[in-house]
Inverse folding.
């Protein structure tokens, strides 16, 4: 038992005292987080915002006669525009009402296509 006690005392006396590390790592960590945020902004957030603004502009410029594609893949021609919806003709006797947010893209315009073919 005495040897175990002597070993513990010897181990405690030879252990290096705890020294405090300088706190210079905090600033570099903060800079790294800032750089990561900037990278995420320029790689993810900014392009998504730009795409969203272009889509909103396209939706606001749609008129009767424009051919569109819905997010479900349904193609048709806009016949009527309401506050929150478009009425779209998909065949001769079939009209469907879509939310404006459900329009994915514009295929062509009614009068715009004719003028571009003449040029």
């Amino acid at each position: 038992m005495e040897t175990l006690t002597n070993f513990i005392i010897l181990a405690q006396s030879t252990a290096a005292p705890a020294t405090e590390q300088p706190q210079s790592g905090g600033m570099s960590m903060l800079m790294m987080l800032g750089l990561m945020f900037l990278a995420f902004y320029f790689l993810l957030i900014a392009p998504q915002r730009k795409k969203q603004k272009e889509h909103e502009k396209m939706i606001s410029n749609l008129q009767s006669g424009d051919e569109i594609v819905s997010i479900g893949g349904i193609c048709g021609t806009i016949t009527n525009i309401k506050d929150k919806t478009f009425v779209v003709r998909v065949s001769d006797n079939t009209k469907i009402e879509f939310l404006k947010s459900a329009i994915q893209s514009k295929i062509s315009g009614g009068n715009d296509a004719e003028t571009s073919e003449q040029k």
Q: What stands out?
A: Confidence is low (pLDDT under 50) at residues 112-119. The longest helix spans residues 25-60. Residues 63-106 form a domain with the SH3 type barrels. fold (CATH 2.30.30.30). The chain is about 50% helix and 25% strand.
